[in-house]
Structures are given as structure tokens and as C-alpha cells.
Amino acid sequence: MVAQNQGEAKRLRVLTLIGVALVSTSVLAGCANSARKVSQITTNAVSRDASRSLDTLSAPELHQAAQSTGQAYARNPKDRDVAMRYSTLLQMNGQSDQALAVMRKLAIDFPKDREVLAAYGKALAAAGELKPALDAVRRAQTPEYPDWRLLSAEGAILDQLGEAEQARVLYRKALSMQPNEASVLSNMGMSYLLEGDLQTAEKYMGQAASSPGADSRVRQNLALVIGLQGRFSDAEKIARQELSPEQAEANVAYLRTMLAQNNSWAQIAKEDKRKNQ
Q1: How far apart are CA 209 and CA 221, in angstroms?
Q2: How many domains does the chain have?
Q3: Which domain holds residue 72?
Q4: 210 found inside a domain
Q5: 46 φ/ψ sector (left φ>0, alpha ψ -120 to 50, else beta)
Q6: What whole-number distance in Å separates Cα of residue 138 and Cα of residue 153?
Q7: Where would one find the signal peptide in this protein (predicted)?
């Protein structure tokens, strides 16, 4: 009975981790229901949005970017780059079903485009259609010229299907092709996080955060893993980096809420204070 209770506790913990990880995909910029500010939509706005990394956009900016890119997409749904960006923006705004619809149409228009097929696979995975996602990513791969990005994407889908060992084989292969790649190291860390092995997860997340090309999502995932181990002051410092004050407050508030589902916030703060004395 004790073992069963421990297993259930671990399962609930993993579900919580998944929830936080999904939020971190949009840089933990706040709740999905945050107020959105829509400004004038022009073709120039699409160009300005495209010149910035989506990871740096606030929640209102993401909504505005989706609106402006959606206008461009409506004018020409077969514009490959606009369609892919629109799908990504929709996903980051929590509109997974609409993002998948955009990518499904694009995959029909570009059936042999590896990048399109890979993005289609990711959209399928985001919508919870994991088996079709796996098939799409594998079809995008070329065995004689394997793409490390596709290997990493396939690994992430396998992790969600509970095939952690197979996933890690792919991550290692991707790292052999692209050493110290932050996104792959982060996926490896997430693989261990999903198993509840937080120390190993932190090891890979830390390597990812210190690697060239690491973005805010990688650092926010590191903050998550550290916070889940009770070192909340350290997690908060990382969570506040590179974000606006408003984003940082939303980020930290969300971390507190998610952590409180498994542990008392007061207890975490108390233990953290004792460790720093």
C-alpha cells in the first residue's frame, strides 16, 4: 500500500511537471487568460514580428503577432513561412487545434518539405495526437542525412509516449551531431523530469542553460527543476532573468501555485531559508 501511494504521488507530481513545462513553452509569461492588447494590424507589423524571436514576446505581443500574421495567412495560405509562423504563434497562444489545422493544410501543400513535416509533427504532438505526430516526424527524416532537430523532436514525442530510453538514445545521437545544443540538452533534462528524477534533470537543464543559444524557455525550465527541489530563492533568481517585471511576477506567481499543489509554499520557504543560513 505504501508503494502504491508513493507511485500515485509520483504520478501526480509528474502531471504537475508536465503542466508547468507546457506553460514554460510560452516563457511563463502569464496565464492563458491574461488580457490581450490588439493594436493596428498591417503588413509591416508582420515583418516587425518576424524579425524578433517569439521567445521575447510578452503575452499581449504574442496575441498581436498572431492577429497580424493571421491576416497575412488569410491573404495567402500557401505562403510556407507565414503559415509556419502563424501555427507557432497559435500554439503559443494556446490555440493548438487551430495551429494543427494550419499545419495540416500546409503539409498537404508541401508533402516533401522536411521542415514542414517536422512542424506538422510538433503541432500534432501539441494537440495530443502523439502517434500521428511520431509518424510525421519520422517521415520528415532522411536516414542518409539525418537532421538532429528531427531526432530531438522524435525523442520528445517518445518521452510523452512513455518511451524514455528510446528517447534518450535519440537525444544522444542528436548531441553527437550537434554538441552542447541547448534545446536537445533541455529535452534530455525534461525526459528525466518526467520520470521524477529531478537531480539528473537539473544536471542537463544546467548544461542547457549555460550552452550557446540557450533561450528563456531553457532557463525557465531550469528554474522549474530547481524550485521543485525546494530551492525556491535560486529558482526565483533564474525566473526573473530576461523578463519584464510583469512577466517575472506572473512567472514566479505561477511557479508558487504549481509548487503548492505538491508542497506547502510556507514549508518550501522555511526549508529554503534554513538551507541558506
Answers
A1: 9
A2: 1
A3: 67-140
A4: no
A5: alpha
A6: 10
A7: 1-29
